[in-house]
Structures are given as structure tokens and as C-alpha cells.
Sequence to fold (180 residues):
Amino acid sequence: MNKEVKDQFSFEKKCQPKIDEIYRIFTYIENINRSNNCKKYDVILTTIEGQDIKIEEKFRRHNARVYDDFLFEIIQSVFPDTRKESKEKLDLGWYYYCEADQVNVCYLNKDENIDKIYSVKWNDFKNWFEENYKSLSKKINVSISTNGYGLTINCAIKWKYIPIELYEVISEYNREQEKN
Fold:
């Protein structure tokens, strides 16, 4: 594991208590379980009614384009680690592996506190995207990263192009309203 990957894992670990606090405020959570953290999702929230909600978490630093787009990884590495036993030619991104009910995209402010969360209904978004990607082609930004796992390919689509029924926005303003 290279330095960029280690730094990202460390950053995410630091953000988890912050999002856990928000989960407790906004959802009637009885339990937050990170012990089964895997490639398919990051956390399971159990509501007081006993419902399990699988969540994939994405934390974007203040230097990211603020609240502008939903970034999802299509290919994690074009050139996979040859030490792996897998015979695959490339490593697919979390877009394909994610089995969460929701993807929570958390934007951090300059103080590294969570400023805004977009909670995406993952299966609904995926179905919508796969049905509409051709008509969206000019609205999708493809970005390439050479940090972390190698040559990674991401897609980004501005929130304004995603139907509002596919996500919910949770912000500091909403949190203050919830307290009153």
C-alpha cells in the first residue's frame, strides 16, 4: 500500500466519528457497525425499528470542487497489481462492487468538519445512470487520477443534472433545524 492510499485511509478513519455523530442526530440509530467494513459498503446502521441500512461513505476534502458533483470510481486501476492472484486485466471501481443502500458523499470545510452530505439512493441512481448515460454524455466529466492505486478513472456528474428524488441533501443548516 503506497503513501497516498495510506493517507486516504487515515483521512477516512478521522472522518468516521464525525459522520457517526450526524447519523445519530438524523436517523434513529440504535447501532453503528463498522466491523464488517468491506469493499461492498463501509458501515451498517441499525435503526430503532431493527432495519439495517448499508452505507458507502465518500469524504471529499475542502479542496474538492465544493458541493458541485457526484464523483464515482469506474476503474480503480487500469494496471492492476501483478502480485495479486486475480487474472483480471484491470480492477473495477467501487461503482461495480458497491452493494450499499445509500452512498453518503460528505464534503468537508476548511476546518475538516462535515459541511454538507449528499445521501444518494444507490440502486436508484445506478439504474437511472445506466438508462441515461448516453443522453448525459456531454454532462459527465471523466477524470483520471494517477495517485493512490495507479491509473484510476472516475466519472463526475453535477448534482443539478441528477434527479432530486435520487438523493437527499443534509447540511449544517438542516442540522440546526433538526435541533429546534
The longest strand covers residues 52-60. DSSP finds four helices and ten strands in the chain.
